[in-house]
Amino acid sequence: MTKRDEFFDSDEFSGSGEERRTRELLATLRRDVSAPSELRSAVMREISSARPPVWARAVSWWIQPHPVQVRPAFAGLALAAVIAVVALLPRTERPVVGTAGTDAVGVVTRFVLVAPEASSVTVTGDFASWNQQGIELQDLRGTGIWTTDVSLPPGVYQYTFIVDGTEWRTDPTAVSQVDDGFGRANSVVIVSPEGAA
């Protein structure tokens, strides 16, 4: 019994008509009131009839997240299996050489040769299997500055220019030159992952 109830039951709260009505009201509120049994069954019928169809419940189940518990040992084994599968996949050769604008893989590296007297210039190197046809450079402005962009994977490459199909010429702006073993020199280009050559 609360202090409030004790107050209303005490002698301080004497028996006038209004006080008697208040006591009767409090007594009524204290009684357990239960709903009729037919009311309970009617409410349950309404609830079950308002249940969504099976397909809606299935869709709701699929879109709601469900917690999954995985033991650390099993997670480690699963990760190891994925790594093993990826490591054992057959490797395919990627194209090494491509010009700008193609889908070639690598860092776009620009080759430039100043040769105003040339009528054609190509570049070849270990990235092009030293093909004598080479990769063609363009003199777009007619100023004798021949350029091309080649997509190369990061690494160190040797190359040379071929002027007018016959003259093999080193790049005077190359970072270094190495002996090619045939009495000539090859230029060296370093292609970094950031694209600096």
Query: Structural class of the helices, strands and pairings?
Result: alpha+beta
Instruction: Name the beta content range.
Output: 15-25%
Principal-axis shape = rod-shaped
Uncertain segments? 92-104
Straight-line distance between termini: 89 Å
**Which value, in Å, is the CA radius of gyration?**
44 Å
CATH superfamily of the largest domain: Immunoglobulins
The first-level CATH class name of the largest domain: Mainly Beta
Per DSSP, the total helix count is 5
Helix content range of the residues, please? 25-40%
Can you write the helix and strand succession as a string?
HHHHHEEEEEEEE
The CATH architecture term of the largest domain is Sandwich
Q: What is the name of the CATH topology of the largest domain?
A: Immunoglobulin-like
What's the pLDDT, averaged over the residues? 79
Give the tally of β-strands: 8
Tell me the count of domains.
2
Major β-sheet annotation: 6 strands, antiparallel
